[in-house]
Amino acid sequence: MSAALQVTAFGLALLSTLFLLLATCTDCWMVNADDSLEVSHKCRGLWRECVTNMQDGVRTCDQYDSILADHPVKIVVTRTLMITADLLAGLALATLVLGLDCITFLKEDPCVKLKMCYGAGVILGAGSILGLIGSVWYAVDVYLERAMLVSHNIFLGVHYDFGWSCWLGMAGSTGCFVAAVLLTCFLY
Q1: How many structural domains compose the chain?
Q2: Residue 114 structural domain
């Protein structure tokens, strides 16, 4: 039972960590269309902004000036939280691999392997909370930006939606949290 639970938690943690990495690296955190005819589709991300022409499918991307340049708070905070979540999830995966019962590393000392699994669960939980805070922070800021435009009657056919990268970050963080709960609470 314990080995099956460990392997399940490892698989979920691996998939969720990949989701977190993809969310951090991709560029579609916020989607907006500039007009009601859906001529262009704009995605804003943490690292660049891309516009896709819907008629011919041509996509052009503008890199942000510099990582050190002045950026909106939502981009800086989300970048920081997502990169930290990625690093913590990677560290947790490495620790979890060494703590799995099916790995022969420290096979003669099961108590240490169990502590490694618990430690991996705690690290994974911390990373998942940071990733979820970063994803939700960005989503709330997108919602507030849209609400501000509506309240000032600037809303002229422009709509903002959460991009697939934002959803991927939330799904990855939630999956890491579930894997952390499996490792810390249900391992016995």
Answers
A1: 1
A2: 3-27+71-186
